[in-house]
Amino acid sequence: MGTTPCTARYAAHTLLAALALTGCSSSAPPPAAGSASPSAPTPASPIQVCTSLVSYWAKETLLGTKWSGLDWEQKGLSNEQYAIHEDAVAAGRAEERTAGRDKALELIDRFVARRCAEQGGATGSSESQRPPV
Fold first, then answer.
1. Is the dihedral of CA 73, 15, 102, 62 positive or negative?
2. Would you put residue 37 in left (φ > 0), alpha (ψ -120 to 50) or beta?
3. How far apart are CA 85 and CA 24, in angstroms?
4. Residue 62 has pLDDT above 60, yes or no
């Protein structure tokens, strides 16, 4: 198997961890002594996670960035999220041909948000893990 897939997987995991941590940082000053402590942050819902993750990777694919060629597992997507990703990329490419890249990126955000909401976060996993029919 060589080192390239492992290197790409490591890089993808590092990127995802960095993205997750970036969302948790705060630039607000610490609370004053004696003031009430802030409440714990609310965890992101499956729909928010789906929207953020799928939209990010769909736009990266449309832009053709260095990491856009990773497979769905390396991107941290479920099977259902990957299906949304592929549909969003196809819709984005069609929009880019007619209305330009900026409009295509906007369309991807709307498309992914709608589909992730419709599918409750689209967390369904591998075909091999589904019960036999």
1. negative
2. beta
3. 25
4. yes
Contacts of 7 by beta carbon, 8 Å cutoff, 6+ apart: none
pLDDT at 99 over 80: yes
In the prediction, which pLDDT does 21 show?
Answer: 46
Using CA atoms of 76, 124, 119, 42 in order, give the dihedral in degrees to the nearest 10.
-60
CA distance 66 to 15: 12
Q: Comparing C-alpha atoms, which of 122, 128, 129, 100 is closest to residue 54?
A: 122
The overall pTM is greater than 0.90: no
- For 98-124, b/e burial (b = at least 16 CB within 10 A) is eeeeeebbebbbebbbebbeebebbee
Cα–Cα distances in angstroms (integers) from residue 70 to residues 8, 34, 82, in the given order: 8, 49, 12
46 closest CA partner among 119, 108, 111: 119
Would you place residue 25 in the very low, low, confident or very high pLDDT band (cuts 50, 70, 90)? very low
